[in-house]
Design brief:
The protein is an alpha/beta fold. It has helices spanning 3-25, 67-84, 89-118, 122-142, 181-192, 206-218, 233-242, 255-266, 290-302, 319-335, 354-369, 424-432, 447-456, 493-497; strands spanning 32-34, 37-39, 46-51, 54-63, 149-152, 158-166, 169-173, 196-200, 226-228, 248-252, 272-275, 280-284, 312-318, 373-376, 380-381, 391-392, 395-398, 415-421, 436-437, 439-443, 461-464, 476-477, 480-481, 489-490, 498-506. Helix 8 (255-266) links the parallel strand 10 and strand 11. The chain binds nicotinamide-adenine-dinucleotide (NAD).
Amino acid sequence: MTKEATKQVTNEATNQETKEAAKQAGAKVYGNLIGGQWLPALGGKTLLNVNPADHTDVVGEFPASDASDVALAVAAAKKAFSSWRLVPAPKRAEILYRAGQLLAERKEQYAREMTREMGKVLAETRGDVQEAIDEAYYVAGEGRRLFGQTTPSELANKFAMSVRMPVGVIGMIAPWNFPMAIPSWKLFPALVAGNTCIIKPAEDTPLSTYNLVQTLMDAGLPEGVVNIVSGYGPEAGAPLVEHPEVRAISFTGSSAVGSLVAQRAAATFKPVSLEMGGKNAMIVMDDANLELALEGALWGAFGTTGQRCTATSRILLHRAIAAEFSAKLVERARALRVGNGLEAGVEVGPQVNAQQIATSAEYVAIALAEGAKLLTGGKALTEGVFSKGTFFAPTIFGGVTPTMRIAREEVFGPVVALIEFETIEEAIEIANSIDYGLSTSLYSRDVNRAFAAMRDLEAGITYINAPTIGAEVHLPFGGVKKTGNGHREGLGALDFYTTWKSVYVDFSDRLQRAQIDNAE
Ligand code: NAD
């Protein structure tokens, strides 16, 4: 059974157990947003959004859509495109400015709702909403900057320019770990460029996408410009990828599903932007500020419960400081307070679902079997306050070698591998030796080492004296190798959401043949 299928079976089992309880507790029922109308899935199926810190707390019941719902949404988006593309870009941008203001007003409410559906601690969900606010203001500025070029023609009395055109109806598929920020990275640049959109949120975290899109509607977005189709990947995501009227797909998620998406999109020649997994290395040199590096390691590895594509999942330690650093890191990891992210003082929330817990446990077993040394954690937390949720202890493996699976494969949980090295060249070689290439970091006070790392680390992002997490919206975001297929979110996203048109205006009043009449 594929990971996606297992996840669905798990969710459906949870559904049956809790659906009755949800009804009794009055959990809110949500529809798909199609052409401005909130509609149940045509097939009548639903999925439950439950709090990973407390499975008895049902956040809401959402449509489990299929191809028929996708078809309706595509028709609505296509209809809306005919008028939205003609709205002047600065006017489209004004809606994003207003949405940014409304998000700022609603930040606390949306952050609390996000912690309830996704689990990460409140400080981080506030950051997630803030990222959407930042993206709104950043992209709104692009409404007056959708620059093309003018260039001299090779012929007399002829004018040449290139202009950016919208692509059309765009399909978007999102993961659960940044349930508002990632949809905003996709929706806002697509909208300012004049596209219409259908977004399929992750099945674990639809509410934050609903909150984001509701905000856009409240800010004045016309009906049908953004549509939401919620549901599972194979039933609701795949038809979006395959629909012939969807002109492009923006996907963020695992490399396994991304590969499927790219193959299916190829049948209709759709451009696909893929943002996928990571196995991100932090290198700590012998001259580093160790206290700073420790703080960074703790935040990079266990922030968001290790469930960031940029999470610090490998820490490469110079042999001279490895023993001291490992001992201190273990001590601090043990002291981290795990719990419900809504409670003050909690530093590490739950994992998002039982499937993620199973993956963390599976990699603990793999690492042990390969000879890595478990320094702390290594198991799900199930007693007392943890019994209602999906919690995993912050976990550190020492004695990891670069060829072990725990050093090469993405876990997407609070599990970090410590690897020792002797020289910076060796560290960079280890960092580069894996299939992923998203984020990297170097802790050193030596400027020569810093510049060598910036140049030689194979990744879309390199931090110096900061952990592998902490991207800002106005820089390019994405990676190389198995992490991405060359596109970027943030700076560069407009290149995906627009298509170039070259325009020639001949005002000579006679036929002028390029490459022929001027070829003397
Ligand atoms: P996932 O691949 O399981 O799911 C991502 C989305 O794809 C979900 O909405 C899911 O329903 C959908 N999907 C699943 N099967 C599909 C199919 N056959 N056709 C179409 N859509 C389908 O990933 P996840 O568990 O939600 O998220 C975790 C992964 O996302 C990690 O690998 C993480 O590194 C990655 N991620 C990457 C970035 C980035 O920008 N590089 C950011 C966040 C997360």
